[in-house]
Amino acid sequence: MSSTSSSQMVQLVADKHVRYILMAEKKKESFESVVMDHLRMNGAYWGLTTLDLLDKLGCVSEEEVISWLMTCQHESGGFAGNTGHDPHILYTLSAVQILALFDKINILDIGKVSSYVAKLQNEDGSFSGDMWGEIDTRFSYIAICCLSILKCLDKINVEKAVKYIVSCKNLDGGFGCTPGAESHAGQIFCCVGALAITGSLHHVDKDSLGWWLCERQLKAGGLNGRPEKLADVCYSWWVLSSLIMIDRVHWIDKAKLVKFILDCQDLDNGGISDRPEDAVDIFHTYFGVAGLSLLEYPGVKVIDPAYALPVDVVNRIIFTK
Ligand code: GRG
Ligand code: ZN
After folding, report:
1. Closest Cα partner for 264 from 254, 278, 252?
2. Which of 192, 197, 220, 255 is most deeply packed, by most CB within 10 A?
3. Would the CB of 192 count as within 6 Å of ligand 1?
4. Catalytic activity annotated for this protein?
């Protein structure tokens, strides 16, 4: 990455991003907070993971986070986006990921949480997001990632789950949200991630998928999510993590992507936006920092492309008893 360190290149303003994340948490009356209230659990996961990648998780009160998190658990075992809301598989994964960051998985009634997730599997192997039944390969990934962290994959039919994901594969090598749906980088991350976690990557046509994914890089260096769309920092996560999982990351220009991400920073107040000059938000701050982690940017911890958690956390949770 020698060209990334040329003199005119802006640097990662890590301390400002840390301050931005800590402030975003405090500003409960802000417009962003009101709009995001129902998905606070997901926002907390993005913010806390970013802090951990920057080695600053110690700046938040673990006790405060965990006591709030536990108020979001529903009697079914699933977690809601905030206190008093309905449970959903996405917030359940976020809650489990946050507890993983703090090495506190064991405070959970693991049997109850894993049963909530397992009950969302359908006869054809697919997963619904909650009791209302929407089906999407996002939920297949979420279920598999969550149950893998909880070491409860045996509670679902993994073979059928994999078969359903493979039925969402397209001729271009990509994956969609349901069988026959158009390939999209976000869904590709979900399908490739779920296949990686279950040891099923042999179902992926790595060359055609790698080709489709590397075509997402535009002239300015940023990546888009499908043909004809604008580049967006979040695809530095969805596309790059997928390329890494299929060993094709060397097919894109990494230095140009680093520059695109760094150009999306608010150098004064911290935070990262979707593209240069747009307003920053907590999601794109995570995607930018996580993207830089995948690009081996100095000073950022290494993130696992399948679990979306720092590698040291994954090693602690998954690879120890
Ligand atoms: C733990 C990393 C992690 C994820 C949890 C929620 C989830 C599982 C995955 C979501 C995957 C997904 C579908 C991401 C895409 C989000 C997105 C930017 C959608 C908008 O796509 P388009 O194509 O619009 O409608 P753009 O903005 O690309 O022009
Ligand atoms: Zn985006």
Report:
1. 278
2. 192
3. no
4. geranylgeranyl diphosphate + L-cysteinyl-[protein] = S-geranylgeranyl-L-cysteinyl-[protein] + diphosphate
